[in-house]
Design a protein that fits this description.
mainly alpha, YfjT-like
Length: about 60
Amino acid sequence: MGNAIHDKEAQLQYLRTRLDMFMHVLDSLEAENADIEDIDRLIGMMDDLQLKCEQFKKDWK
């Protein structure tokens, strides 16, 4: 894994990058062919983003 990010601008860039990755995965998913593993992966990505947002929010206070 990478180093901890403490700079607010770097944290925002990290979140933007991760959100772009999520959107790319979502856009590439074909609804007709999606299975439970695909949905679980999307949910996991959203959970990771939420966790990072909570961690960064604590740093910004």
